[in-house]
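Progress against Task 2.4 (sequence-to-structure conversion) is shown through the following example record, which the project officer requested during the mid-term review.
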Amino acid sequence: MDLNLTQETISSYERNVIVPSVDVLIKMADYFDTNIDYILCRTKYDLPINQIKPNNIDDRSFQLLTKINKLSQTDQIKVEAYIDGLNSK
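Structure tokens generated for the chain above:
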């Protein structure tokens, strides 16, 4: 996907000379597979909006879940088996 932005426009965004429109922010978030708040430096979570941390989970647990989510399915199964083994002690 091409954002159809000139280098001058991008530079203006980076220098806070102009603010991107909502439409451009949405396109940027989709293009970079992140969320608008991350682009605007309002959050440290570089995730698509559908993967944003829910309010009922602490930061440490969320970071662990994010790491597990990035693993292959095979490695996720291994992690789950390891956790099950620790819990059965």
